[in-house]
From TrEMBL:
The keyword rRNA-binding does not apply. The active site is at 36. Keywords: Oxidoreductase, Peroxidase. Belongs to the glutathione peroxidase family. Gene3D superfamilies: Glutaredoxin. GO terms for biological process: cellular response to oxidative stress. It comes from the Bacteria. GO terms for molecular function: peroxidase activity. Pfam families: GSHPx. The lineage of its organism: Bacteria, Bacillati, Bacillota, Bacilli, Bacillales. SUPFAM superfamilies: Thioredoxin-like. This is Glutathione peroxidase. Residues 1-182 form the Thioredoxin domain.
Length: 182
């Protein structure tokens, strides 16, 4: 059975990084963008990283420009933006695609292992997200595609997806998932 340890990603400078280096540790994988309505989540992600890194948590970000072109710069510019504006100390990797024929194989795996649970039609934020997707990237509205920036996948110490969090998930929900793994 595949795990995240079967994949290698690229750092902004081009260096390849095998994810097996996280073996035995929980990991929160996030697709990010610097010009997104959810960009403020970098604050919460850094706080989670600070709170749980001593217990082994790794947070890793992957800039993506597939959603309303909200990450137009280079990988290096995206990483610098995160550090300068949000004090991000967790690793930011090279820009990638998360959907479609050019999606990075890691995200193809994540989508299969952590399928989309659907929209909660009683939640106003979920309705707004669904409308934003319909207006901008309707091809990814259905199925397990990544719906928008700041979709998060929580990975256990065995490299398996245990939970998928959509961009509108609360920090408390994500924190509860992390604490259940630690």
């Amino acid at each position: 059975m595949a795990t995240i340890y079967d994949f290698t990603v690229t750092k902004p400078g081009g260096e390849r990084f095998p994810l097996y280096q996280f073996e035995g540790k929980p990991v929160l994988i996030v697709n990010t963008a610097s010009k997104c309505k959810y960009t403020h989540q970098f604050d919460d992600l850094q706080k989670l990283y600070d709170r749980y890194k001593e217990q082994g948590l790794h947070v890793i970000g992957f800039p993506c420009n597939q959603f309303a072109k909200q990450e137009p710069g280079s990988s290096e510019e995206a990483a610098a933006f995160c550090q300068l504006n949000y004090g991000v100390k967790f690793p930011m990797f090279a820009k990638i695609d998360v959907n479609g024929n050019t999606a990075h194989p890691l995200f193809d795996f994540l989508k299969q292992a952590g399928p989309f649970a659907g929209f909660d039609e009683s939640d106003v934020q979920a309705k707004l997200l669904k409308l934003m997707i319909s207006d901008n990237t309707p091809e990814w509205l259905h199925g397990d595609a990544i719906k928008w920036n700041f979709t998060k996948f929580l990975i256990d110490g065995e490299g398996r997806v245990v939970q998928r969090f959509e961009p509108i998930a609360s920090i408390d929900e994500i924190q509860s998932g992390i604490e259940a793994l630690l």
